[in-house]
Each structure stands twice: as C-alpha cells, then as structure tokens.
Amino acid sequence: MKSKSILLILAYFLYFSNCAEILCIFVVPVHSHLSVYNAVTMELLSRGHKITLISVDPRENERNHVNVTLIELLSLKETYESQVQHFLLKPSRFFDHNPFLEILSSVFKNKHFLNLLKNDKKFDLLLMESFGFSPFNALAEYFNVPTVSITAGDALSTEHENRGNVINPVAHPDRLLEFPFAKTFSERLQSSIYWLTFKYVVMPLLIVKCDEITEKYFPNNKVKKYYDLTSNVDLLLINAHPVMGFIRPILPNTIPLGFLHIYPPQPLPGILQEILDKNTNGVIFVSFGTVYKPNYFPNVVQKLLTACENLPYLFLFKYDGVLDNVPKNMIIQKWFPQSDLLAHGNIKLFITQGGQQSMEESILRRVPMLIMLISSDQRANAIRVEDRQIAKVLDIHKNDKINSDDIKNSILDLVNNKRYKTNIENLTKLVEDVPMTSRDKAVWWIEYVIRNRGAKHFHYEQKNIPFYQYHYYDVIAFIGAVIVLIILIFMVILRLIGRFFEMLRNFKIKRD
Ligand SMILES: *[C@@H]1O[C@H](CO)[C@@H](O)[C@H](O)[C@H]1NC(C)=O
Ligand SMILES: *[C@@H]1O[C@H](CO)[C@@H](O)[C@H](O)[C@H]1NC(C)=O
C-alpha cells in the first residue's frame, strides 16, 4: 500500500516534470542577462520540459535542443544595440531612443510571433523576462497559463511595487540610481524625486503604449490594462543575492536567487592554460563587459595601460579593436572564457566595469576586484560590493582626476593586501552554504507554479490599500483631531468655570 502511494506520487511528479510546455520570452539582447535566462531554460530542458523560446539572441545550446521550438527575433538585435548605446550613454533621451519601446514594436511585427498567436498550441506556463513594462503579460490570459517573471539583477522598483514588496525611495532607491541607499539629504531628495517622477510621469507615458498594443493584439482578453496585467504575475524570480548586499523586505511571491549563470569551471583552451600556469607571479584579467565597447572611453584605457606597464604581473585584456601603446606584459584578445579563467589559481585580480554577472563570477571564483566605473548604472552595485571589502571602486566615470598612479596603487593594494582575499573567501563560503543551488531553486519554484497552476495564493491583497490607509495616516489624523477636540473642550470648560467664578465674585461685590 505504502509503496503504491509512493509510486503514485512519483508518477505524479514525473508526469508534471516531464510534460510541461513552457513559453519563454527573452527579448532584451544583453549578453550577461541572456546568460542568466539561459541557465534557467537549460535547467528546465534537462528535466524534460519543452520550451517555446522567443529570443532575441538564442545560445547554441538552446538553438540545437530537440525540445526547443525557437522563434528568433533576428532583425531586432542590431537596431536594439544601437538604441542601447544611445540610451546608456545618454539616459536623458529616454523617449526618442527607448530601446524597450523599439523591442515591443518589433516583436509584434514578427511573422513567427504572430503565427504563434494564431495557432492554438497549449502551454503550461509563461516564463518572461521582466523589464518594468511590457504587454507580454497579456499572453498569460491568451494562453490561459500562470506567469513567472524573472530579472537578471534586482528588479525595478515598479516590479517590486507590483508584487507588493516594500518600495521606499530612501531605504531602497531604484536600481537605476547610483546609490544602494539614500544616506544624505540630497540623495534622499534625488531618490524621492526620481521615484515620484518615474511612477507618476514616466510610467504612465510608457503604459499608454503597452495598453495600445494589448488592445490591438489581444482584443478578446478580459484584462487589458497594464496595472491589472502585471498584478496577475504569480511569482517574481530576482537574480540578486543577499550576500551581495541585496537586502530588502520581500513577500513570499518574490524569490531571491543570484549566481544563476555560473557553472563549475571548465578546462581552459590549451595555450591559455599554459600562459596562466607559467605566470606564477600573478595574472590580472581586465574586461569591461559586452555592453560598453572600450573605444567609447579611450582615455580610461590609456590610463589603464600606463598603470599596467611597470607592474610585475601579466595582464589579459578583453578588448575588441586595435590599441596603441600596448605594454609588453599585456595580451589583448577579443574574447576570453571569463568564468573559467577567473577560476585559475594564478589570477590575482579582476579589473571590471562592475556588471553584476561579472562580479558574481569573481566572487564565486574568489578573486578580488578593481571596479572601474565607466557608466553610472553600475555604481550602486559596485558600492554594495565595496562595502563587503572585497573590491575597490574607482569612479573614473565621474572623476577625471583619477590618474594612472591611482589605478596602479589600487592594483598593488588589492593584490598585496591579504584582507581582500580573506574577505572574498569568507563571502564565497556564505554563497555556497545553501540548501540548494540557485538553478535548482529557480526550477523548483517554476515547477511549483506549474504543479499548482499558479501561485495566486501568495498574492498580497493589502497592496491595494490606499497609501493613506496603509500608513494609517487617517487613523493618526483622527486620533490627533480627537485629542485636539478634547483639549479645546477642556479649555472651553475651564474658561466657562473661570467666567462663572468671576460672575460669582462680581455678584458678591454688588451685594456687599
Ligand atoms: C525531450 O523531451 C522528451 C519528453 O519530455 C524527453 O523524454 C527527452 O528526454 C527530451 N530530450 C532531451 C534531449 O532532453
Ligand atoms: C574570514 O575567515 C577567516 C578564516 O576562516 C577568519 O579567521 C576570519 O575571522 C574571517 N573574517 C571575517 C571578517 O569573518
């Protein structure tokens, strides 16, 4: 009897874990973000799920998988990349060069995507990248499935708000701001104005576009308004780990992950392995990621080259282009297997622009970092990591006074001061001391939503309480008013009593 029920339970789980059809949408072509989503899709595929993948830049392992039906958004990538460069270099041009609006209009013109809407394929789940606003949430009702949203880093404040998580511009400035929390008055002012403007000016403008698309492509849906659509998300997976300083109050409908995209290190290609083995004095890896091309900041690169020149280490610099004045102790290459490279014992330091995925790799491989900020949107994350004393931040983006000597001294300190290495080893222990890996956790929760046909039972009803009621300002006002009233009545009574005695005295005087 017992073994029979175990078999039944097993069959139940096998049934669900083998048969799910998952619709995945990943449309923002940022390499490091896609590597996070790829880790999740590959984990799902390895458990026998089938995936229909709408992707702007599918990886080889997704492209070649028998259980992946691919809808590739080919034309999108280049237009998007140029838009992103505009956007990142000049965030003020949010509306005329908004890469996300560009994406939305391109996806809804894609023939294969429109065909998907026409055929009546059955799905069990919508798994979508969440980037603050998108009409893709409407696909959940269209295909009658629950939704899991996922982000490559911390979620935007609007997404936290949609789930009901605490959003407070002082304690938790939006992730696009430059500080992890607003310490000074000017930061509090900046963060509050940013949030209020974003919430009450920017979002409504963007939402108009979303609602237009939903109206047009999902005319039979019951829910078409953006805010109602996003309220229907069952679970939000955020790839932000508490040990990196992402600590904030979140509800059970938000699952923190982190380090999703990192696998055990693979052997290095022959020649690279040789080079690293040989340089026992120390190798330093330099990469500014894939979004920013180093030819956008030639001055920084020249300062760095000068700093490296006389140091007794070998530098490996990921640089896509031609460079003058390359010092003898530097090897330049278009691409390096970063995550595997960082695992080599002779790597002493990682010089990075501070992208979250890069910093995660550095932490898991126990390599201290020199973070050279070349854009303001990495600053908050960099400060969080610096606070853990595993890295130094040079804000070369803001401060042109930083010279090659500053860079050189920072490198020497980070390599020679054992404190950084000890701290990072301690931090890595904390990352690894968990009941299951982030990939297992992500997949467990995704399968949970599939098994239970949603996770609406986690919905936080109280998030719809009006602001003044939630903070019980009405109650405070009422109690205040009652107290004032009592004081007033008391004063009136005192005055009346005073008058009464005065009258009594006057009366006595008259009688006498
Ligand atoms: C594809 O899916 C089927 C059915 O779920 C499964 O049996 C098979 O192992 C999967 N193939 C691969 C390569 O994962
Ligand atoms: C880090 O770990 C070392 C060795 O286990 C220990 O001596 C040290 O106190 C730890 N440092 C901190 C800050 O926890």
UniProtKB/TrEMBL annotation:
<dbReference type="GO" id="GO:0008194">
    <property type="term" value="F:UDP-glycosyltransferase activity"/>
</dbReference>
<dbReference type="InterPro" id="IPR002213">
    <property type="entry name" value="UDP_glucos_trans"/>
</dbReference>
<keyword id="KW-0472">Membrane</keyword>
<keyword id="KW-0808">Transferase</keyword>
<dbReference type="Pfam" id="PF00201">
    <property type="entry name" value="UDPGT"/>
</dbReference>
<keyword id="KW-1133">Transmembrane helix</keyword>
<comment type="similarity">
    <text>Belongs to the UDP-glycosyltransferase family.</text>
</comment>
<keyword id="KW-0328">Glycosyltransferase</keyword>
<keyword id="KW-0732">Signal</keyword>
<protein>
    <recommendedName>
        <fullName>UDP-glucuronosyltransferase</fullName>
    </recommendedName>
</protein>
<dbReference type="InterPro" id="IPR050271">
    <property type="entry name" value="UDP-glycosyltransferase"/>
</dbReference>
<feature type="signal peptide">
    <location>
        <begin position="1"/>
        <end position="19"/>
    </location>
</feature>
<feature type="transmembrane region" description="Helical">
    <location>
        <begin position="475"/>
        <end position="498"/>
    </location>
</feature>
<keyword id="KW-0812">Transmembrane</keyword>
